[in-house]
């Protein structure tokens, strides 16, 4: 007896059904993967929060951000280096030369030894090595962190510059004197004081999702891949200042104008701006060690009140 086979029409129908099923399942698979990456990012921040608390328990102060000068006038390292012993990174910590600047040749090898906890798995290129041409023309291998400290709570209100208060990770204060903050300085309470936010994808500068040329920032004098990106660099802080994205009509190049406009997160990772690949906002670490998701629609004053640790403002509930 002759065996019946599939007709061409039946085969096409089966293929069409399989295609529809794949199309229906793919978004669910992508959402599940992003949920797993987001949870991993959250766990990274919790690890960093625990390390910061252990650092404070040991030294009775918090590490500094910004440009903490060494006694010899050189720039010290990022707080990310300072907390390494409390993040199972004592072997990397022991290799760092704290008597020299972060970009000294003796600290070259450490730039490529960033722990995985400093990289968000959702950020493309995060945790991967990038090449940087230093001032001597040599190519260095470095890694960029996805997480930066909140070190600014300033804003322009009605044309005037307003500082809402001090941040827990001290940068350069108005009098220029080096200070180390303590948990007791969080007069608003640790649960109302921001410590850290995401600034992901910094294997390249991004503006509205578009990769920017790896050259000098117009009017600012900073290069991509240098102290703003390298995980050991001294500029490891950010804020929520209003920013406008502008385009040069002659070149088409995009640039950022600070203290104007209304955008505050997820528009660019230049200057360590708050930026993530999690839809709708960025992950954040609070001083009490809790991790919260800050949404793009948050009120500007709420963000600044959370950034400042001593403004007398408390924000109830979830953010």
Automatic annotation (TrEMBL):
Transmembrane segments: none annotated. SUPFAM superfamilies: Pili subunits. Pfam families: N_methyl (PF07963), SBP_bac_10 (PF07596). InterPro entries: DUF1559 (IPR011453), N_methyl_site (IPR012902), Pilin-like (IPR045584), Pre_pil_HX9DG_C (IPR027558). Coiled coil: none annotated. Residues 30-299 form the DUF1559 domain. NCBIfam families: IV_pilin_GFxxxE, pre_pil_HX9DG. This is DUF1559 domain-containing protein.
